[in-house]
Amino acid sequence: MKKKLGIVVVVSMVLLFGVGICFAEMPSADPAAIWTYISKTSPYHQWQNWPDHQGIQKGHSPHGMLHQVFVNQAGLSSAKPPAAYGTMIVKDNFNKKKELKAITAMVKVKGYNPAAGDWFWVKYSPTGKVDKAGKPQGCIGCHAARERNDFILLHEFK
Ligand code: HEC
After folding, report:
1. Secondary structure of residue 149 in the 3-state scheme
2. DSSP code string of 10-30
3. Does ligand 1 have an atom closer than 6 angstroms to the CB of 59?
4. Which residues contact 109 (CB under 8 A, 6 or more apart)?
5. Best mutation site among 113, 137, 143 for ligand 1, i.e. most ligand atoms within 8 A of its Cβ?
């Protein structure tokens, strides 16, 4: 009897933990929380690349010479612009020797900045030190060239 109860407790804990992960709240507009999320809670290297932008590709200034873009499930399942709230796009920026130089990200946070697609912008060093974060005019101004594609340059919504 005791053994059965033990099994029930273990199974319930596993289920609760699983449900907890599924519904774990996405980080809000907070660069430290976003770093914890993409480096520990849901490591972005385990996400996918956009189907139309796979693997390491050549990049342009001001980003790295080479890059790779990772996108979470909310982004991947967004069929047309705007991307769904909770979308996270994380880009590894490498120099020409493929050394990681910076990590840039866009996170779609409801109500954060409706004037510019509700994107939270952030640039980290390879170890997670915040370089720029929030609504930097630089990031927004340049990406606004593709406002109709929800400020996203490396993926075409159909
Ligand atoms: C002068 C223009 C310019 C500025 C400023 C700029 N970007 Fe970009 N960004 C690009 C281009 C061009 C790409 C396409 C990839 C490449 O060429 O490296 C890109 C791609 C990205 C991507 C991949 C998602 C996508 O759009 O496809 C992210 C994430 C990103 N930039 C974040 C940022 C952040 C954060 C900042 C500010 C700290 C910033 N960018 C500033 C031009 C810019």
Report:
1. helix
2. HHHHHHHHHHHHHHPPPP-S-
3. yes
4. 28, 29, 85, 118, 119, 120
5. 143
In CATH terms, the fold of domain 29-149 is Chalcone isomerase (3.50.70)
Q: How far is the CA of 40 from the centre of ligand 1 (A)?
A: 24
Helix (H, G, I), strand (E, B) or coil at 33: helix
Residue 121 CA, closest ligand 1 atom number:
35
> Do 109 and 87 contact (CB within 8 A), yes or no?
no
What are φ and ψ of residue 84, in 5° steps?
Answer: -65, 150
- Whether residue 91 has its Cβ less than 6 Å from ligand 1: yes
Report pTM. Answer: 0.88
Q: Are 51 and 77 in contact (CB under 8 A)?
A: no
- What is the reported pLDDT for 1? 57
State in Å: Cα 18 to ligand 1 middle. 34
Spatial contact of 153 and 144, defined as CB atoms under 8 Å apart: no
What tens digit of pLDDT does each residue of 32-56 get?
999 999 999 999 999 999 999 999 9
Name the residue among 90, 84, 73, 110 with its Cα closest to residue 38.
Answer: 90
